[in-house]
Design brief:
Length: 311
């Protein structure tokens, strides 16, 4: 069955790889890409999404979304690991693909309102501002969503503060709205995405595919690996966001545990923490499937399989 999806993202090297995978794989009908401020400003994340689609020949409409979080300003943009453009590394030809005129939040509302109940899967790989805004503006969209497969959070440590991961910290109120919407969320958190490390050996492997997708992957990853090394001292770059798409293609890549997750929005120290009740201490409704383990071999096989589908 082909799954109708909307990718809500802030590209971003790992977001771009998620687009690359979902955009070509026959399991998906990518209805649209919505962009949000996160790794970079909204103008830059939109330009990056357009460049990726144009380079890959993906005929997917791109809708620009929220330029600021719902309530509290989040962390600064992530130049350290994604560069000044938000997608440093590749050199794209001049951009002819245009963003759509409709705002991403309006697009989400319009598309979901026209859908059947539980018809569309959302894949957020950035802060959840667009999705939360759409839910607040038009709560009837909630029943139209089949499920949410997102990158964000962590049941262990964060990467912006000891408690919080970037996408959640960047708009914790939005995450609060989405996690309390009643929609089931599969959460690809840092606990697994930090293990999806792209080492230089992976880049060499993908380079052998020798097509437009592998060229983009290689150009992105050479920068991303260097930046991660300079920032965190890591030898490999964590490909957080593609874990969402890899999970939908092959759920066996991950081990998932169902539990209740709350978003901390009141604490100073732990603002933006995803409190995953893995031991069912609260007996609250299990609103989340939290990824607790990843088979990295299967993960890279899935990435490679997608890249090979391009001409
Ligand atoms: C998340 O933050 C961004 O920098 C990445 O694209 C990913 O979505 C990881 O914390
Ligand atoms: Ca992202």
């Amino acid at each position: 069955m082909v799954r109708k999806v909307i990718i809500d993202c802030d590209p971003g090297h790992d977001d771009a790889t998620a687009i690359m995978m979902a955009g070509i794989h026959p399991d998906f009908d990518v209805l649209g890409i919505t962009t949000v401020k996160g790794n970079q400003t909204i103008e830059k994340t939109t330009t990056n999404a357009l460049n990726v689609c144009q380079w890959l020949g993906l005929d997917i409409p791109v809708y620009e979304g929220m330029s600021e979080p719902m309530v509290i300003a989040g962390p600064p943009t992530e130049e350290r690991v994604h560069g000044q453009s938000g997608l440093d590394g590749p050199h794209f030809p001049s951009l002819t693909k245009k963003k759509e005129s409709m705002h991403a939040v309006q697009y989400l509302i319009q598309t979901l309102m026209q859908a059947d109940d539980h018809e569309i899967t959302l894949i957020p790989t950035g802060p959840l501002t667009n999705i939360a805004m759409a839910m607040r503006l038009e709560p009837r969209i909630i029943s139209k969503v089949k499920e949410i497969i997102m990158m964000g959070g962590s049941y262990e440590n964060g990467n912006v503060t000891p408690a919080a991961e970037f996408n959640i910290y960047a708009d914790a109120e939005a995450a609060y709205v989405v996690f309390n919407s009643g929609i089931h969320i599969t959460m690809m958190g840092l606990d697994v995405t930090r293990k999806a490390l792209c080492f230089p050996s992976v880049v060499d492997r993908m380079e052998k595919i020798n097509n437009k997708a592998s060229k983009l992957f290689v150009d992105m990853m050479r920068f991303f690996i260097k930046a991660q090394h300079e920032t965190y001292g890591w030898e490999g770059a964590p490909l957080h966001d593609p874990c969402t798409v890899a999970y939908l293609i092959n759920p066996d890549v991950f081990k998932i545990k169902e539990c209740h997750t709350d978003i901390e929005i009141r604490s100073e120290q732990s603002y933006g923490r995803t409190n995953c009740d893995l031991f069912n201490l609260t007996d609250k409704v299990k609103n989340t499937g939290v990824a607790i383990d990843i088979n990295t071999e299967k993960f890279w096989d899935t990435v490679e399989q997608c890249l090979k589908m391009y001409d």
